[in-house]
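So, can you check this record?

>
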Amino acid sequence: MKSQIILFFALIMLGACNNPTKTGITQQPTLADYQVGEKWVWKYKGVTTEGEVRSDGEDTRKIVSIDGALGMTIGKDTIPITDIVKKDESNTPKYDWPLQVGKKWKYENNWTSQDGTTGKQSQNAEIVSYQEETVAAGTFMAYTIKYTGKTTNSRGYNADEEEVWLYAPEVKNFIKLTQNQGEFLYVEELIEYSKPE
């Protein structure tokens, strides 16, 4: 009986070490988790309550090798993966690693747009579930992370907002984002994810 109990706990530990997401706890991806040729494609659309389409298109990102170092193409830019996986030292991060259902934190972001407009996001974040979610790219285990708060900018914009992000550890990224700013609804959904065999 004792050997069966030891074997049982050994199998639990082995399972937890091999696939931490099955336990509902996910660590931040590392450089080793990415590979050349990995690709994500999202479809996005933003519409006002009056039906005016303000954004509509696709966003493609791909892992490439530049002089032997991995990078992610984002538009015309290539961001080193070492920057993407760098630990966020902020007290108010977008993702508070490790991810786990029930976790709560404060997210704040100050930004400046290309036209010089400055702004701030201040949101309360909570991971409300970890379950199968289906999007156009397929079905994935994903965390539902809900952000509620305000966005303001130097042009007088001030809006309450709610964002729901579905983050899938398998693809190391979000698979769906729904952002509601009262008079504006923005949805971005993963429509393709692929990696080399």
Observations:
- The helical segments are 2-18, 81-84.
- The CA atoms of residues 47 and 53 lie 4 Å apart.
- Confidence is low (pLDDT under 50) at residues 1-21.
